[in-house]
Amino acid sequence: xxxxxxxxxxxxxxxxxxxxxxxxxxxxxSRYLNWYQQxxxxxxxxxxxxxxxxxSGVPSRFSGSGSGTDFTLTISSxxxxxxxxxxxxxxxxxxRWTFGPGTKVDI
Amino acid sequence: EVQLLESGGGxxxxxxxxxxxxxxxxxxxxxxxxTWLRQAPGKGLEWVSVIxxxxxxxxxxxxxxxxFTISRDNSKNMLFLQMDGLRAEDxxxxxxxxxxxxxxxxxxxxxxxxxx
Lengths: 107, 116
Known about the structure:
The complex is a heterodimer of chains A (about 110) and B (about 120). By secondary structure, chain A is mostly beta strands. Chain A has strands at about 5, 10, 20-25, 35-40, 45-50, 55, 60-65, 70-75, 85-90, 100, 105. In chain A, the strands form two sheets. In chain A, strands 2, 4, 5, 6, 9, 10 and 11 form a seven-stranded mixed β-sheet that branches. Chain A has a four-stranded antiparallel β-sheet with strand order 1-3-8-7, with no helix packed on it. In chain B, about 40% of the residues are buried. By secondary structure, chain B is mainly β. The radius of gyration of chain B is 13 Å and the shape is globular. The interface of A and B includes residues 36, 91, 94, 96 and 102 of A.
């Protein structure tokens, strides 16, 4: 299976900060990379699909980039509702999808 | 609006069985591949099983192969996961999800706890 790594595992940031989370795949996955946000006790929510496409209804402060093995999720100006855990997921190896271990964003 | 509502979770002893259900609405159910994913307490996300829109093809993660069975009833817009031979390591919140090009739209989840 394709292994996904994320860094950092956690970070502390303030409202208004620019936040960047990285995701690395163990082999090339083209642009088949999705990002999710999960708040405590809630289901994950799709933010970005195919590396850089913003899911409908997701604020434009979220953006994604990358291809091959290295990807980033950027929050341009952190808002209070953005405190959550973020996961990357590869959709290259269907149906053996795999997720990164998550990045917790807190104060 | 896509709605996915899981039910059937609970506490079961090791070696026992449980059947999860997922009621879908807000989209043409039979057109979509559906999946089950899970999240152990305090852990990350894991894909469990997938079934194509017609129900003709199914796939399982190695960790559940031979113990879990996915099925669907397109006439009732329902997805199921029959879980047999449950182990402590199967304890998790189980989510049903609509799959579109490898990305997921998730239900709210159902907790399955395997303990004696």
